[in-house]
Amino acid sequence: MNGSRTTGGTVTSAAVKWVAGWAGAGVWAAGFVAFSTLAPHRIWGASAAVGYLGAALAAGLLRGPRARSVALGSALTGAVAVPFGYLLLTGEGQSEVGVIQRSAALLLHSGTPYLAEPQAVTDYNPYLPGMALFGIPAALLGDGSPVARLLGDARLWCAVVLLLCLVGGRAVLRRGGPGHVAAPGGSTVLAVLIASPLVAFPLCVSGVDLPLAGLCWLGLALAARGRGGAAGLALAAACALKWTALPAVAVAAALLAGSYGTRQALRCASAWSAGVVALVLPVALRSPGALVEQVFAFPTGQAEVATPAASPLPGRLLAELGPAGRYTAVLLLVCGGVAVAVSLVTRPPAGCVAAADRLAAGLCVAFLFAPAGRFGYFALPLLLVVWSRLATGVLPGARSQAALPRRGGPPTARPTALPQATHVAPHVPAATLPGRH
């Protein structure tokens, strides 16, 4: 079958791909119902499986543009609207939602989002101070009414920041200069991304990694257009949420230095430093011990209370072997980081897609060999890789990102000017000219 509809109303290859995609998403969602022991996961899985099944049926049975719109509506309803509204109204979610909202209340009353003497796992706040800002609406509105619960839930504001960053980064690439226009149909591809399990699941049950991914993407998009100061501020906001955003700063600086010159890279670093100091330093000075223990020691398994991030990844399995295994995991982590850093110096990324790929590679290395981690962490690099291609229209293996217009820096591959040749008009016999005989 080819990509266009054949006579007789047979299903096209495009329809088959949509059916397969939605059906696969439905099987993934049903797996949470069958295997997960967490109530929010099971609620999302049951609702999303129904929505994805309806989307697969619509994509296979309907024809024309109506098939895709009905399928997308079914997926968004089942995987996002219904579980998101239900979980927000009931207050159910992963434990980090409560941690963020409690940290916001602590920040407003004591000036620090960290408990002085945490005892249980939920007493630890493994996020940097910027994450507490998402819980301020809940601290101000309370939970006395359904409207307050909806508008105060931190997941809502995490979703808002993600959407603004995804759309904003795409707009930056579209308006940034000639020769590179983002792919058409942006609203459709964005809706498909939101409806997919990659975004819909964390959006409904947790949400904490979504603003981090959005801000990293926005920072890379700004860097791809030579806006070093704005990129530094966006990445400072990301680093004020979780320290795992630090590799994005190195990738953005390498992109700016290679495409626009050292001055833009230094401008990015300066703006990032100022932003981090303004967002993190006040809390760090007020409670330095609590910040170090809860933000750095706890996620890496060095605190008195064990972290729940215990997926059987290589770093975690090595750490369980004892001190030798832990040192081996740390050594592999350092070697992987050095390899990515060397690649940034020797072959800096050219364009947003290449930068997103390089950042995703660095994050995957960190998540694989960290002494503690979760499979869910890989949603961040996967989201960066997928959206960078959807937003720019660059297919896997394409090289259109390599020729972005450059500002302020020397071009890397300017063609050598050829000497202009003197044009010699060819001799045309007079008898062949019009009107001549």
Describe the overall structure.
This protein is an all-alpha fold and 437 residues long. The protein has a domain at 10-92 and 153-207. It has 18 helices and no strands. It has helices at 13-35, 39-61, 65-90, 95-110, 136-141, 146-152, 154-175, 186-195, 197-205, 209-224, 228-239, 246-260, 262-286, 288-297, 314-319, 323-346, 352-369, 379-392. It is globular, with a radius of gyration of 26 Å. Residues 402-417 have a biased composition (Low complexity). The chain crosses the membrane at residues 15-37, 43-62, 69-89, 154-173, 185-208, 228-256, 268-285, 324-345, 352-372. Residues 401-421 are annotated as: Disordered.
Summarize the structure.
By secondary structure, this protein is mainly alpha-helical.
How much is the average pLDDT? 84
What percentage of residues falls in helices of 4 or more residues? 55-70%
Shape: globular
Largest sheet: none
The radius of gyration over CA amounts to 26 Å
Strand content: under 5%
Number of strands: 0
Instruction: Kindly report how far apart the N and C termini lie.
Output: 59 Å
- Secondary-structure element string: HHHHHHHHHHHHHHHHHH
Number of helices: 18
Summing up helix and strand content along with how strands pair, one would put the structural category as mainly alpha
Please mark out the parts with pLDDT under 50 across 5 or more consecutive residues, or reply none.
1-9, 178-182, 396-437
